[in-house]
Specification:
376 residues, alpha+beta, Beta-Lactamase, Hypothetical protein af1432, 6-stranded antiparallel sheet, 15 helices, 52% helix, binds fe (ii) ion
Amino acid sequence: MKTTRDSKLTAELIGEETIEQRHLDTLLQVSRAIGTVLDRDQLIRQIIEQTTVAMNADRSTLFLHDAKRSQLYSRLAQGLEDWPRELRFRDDAGLAGHVFQTHQALIIGDTFEHPLFARDVAERTGYVPRSMLVVPITHRRDYCDGVLQVMDTETNVFTAADLALLEAIAVQVGISLDNARLYAAQKRQFDSFVHAFSTALDARDPVTQIHSINVANFAMGIATYLGMPRREREWLRVAGLLHDVGKIGTPEAILTKPGKLSDDEFAEMKQHAAHSREILSQIEFTEDYEQIAEIAAAHHEKLDGSGYPDGLAGDDLPLKARILCVADIFDALTQDRHYRKGMSIDKAFSIIDDMTPHQLDPACVHALKQFMGVVA
Ligand SMILES: [Fe+2]
Ligand SMILES: [Fe+2]
């Protein structure tokens, strides 16, 4: 690494073991830093930052392969603010293309002496590296994810030990990219399942067809104005889509009855909240969605204990359940029902105000008004 060379510390002075130990420490640090990140763009940013620090270089770039277009691309060229956000070129072009095609890493003491170095392109970016390490990301046999390169404006900066370290980092990068890909695929699968489930439910009743989507949106809007983090908002989106899933067991004659429900029919209708809990508790949600069955089932509970299915009151009613409750009532009031037309937003909020604060959480109601632009 540059520090090693700059400070003229040779293997003799600090000992081979020390250098190896230092590289191992660096590798562990990078692995730790990127190992837990699952969002792809965030992961790429982390890789670039961590690699630059680990190699004590000026800059690093990660080129990923776009198989459909046979191109290498980099979304973030670190430090090159004026450069287009996405850099693309053929996957056999330049140093990166050569490394990608051959799967052979390169250590370059002076780029000006390397025939594949595109000096004119570098000069146009305003950054001209002289030393480079370019390694393929080939943690899987016969497959290359892309190319990782580190650069410095001085010549002969990097050593063979640095190259070995970067190759080890590239293995970690490849594994992390695989994890991110797998996580994204699982998330897409989960999202499509939740959507299909809620669409199937809403389709049972053409009049209330988009109720689940609306409740999800209102719940996320309330959460936003309450300052809840993204993870909690995502939780509420899924809970909103699934909260009425228990209606799958409610007879259609009751669901779509044009007039007022009889007491018996209403009692039957109320069962859906408990059914939501029964159905959702059978799904093995990841810990990101823990308690979704309990809280989704509590969307008809009221702060004064007059709600159902359990008559929860006050502090026993979690914030997320209070949010779902307000979102659910607001959509029910403003959408058409079999027995009445949807109300205006003002009329709906005047009914909601009458239920606040003894039944509905005033902070949630206020946040919904902010989301709807009724108050500042
Ligand atoms: Fe409901
Ligand atoms: Fe509902």
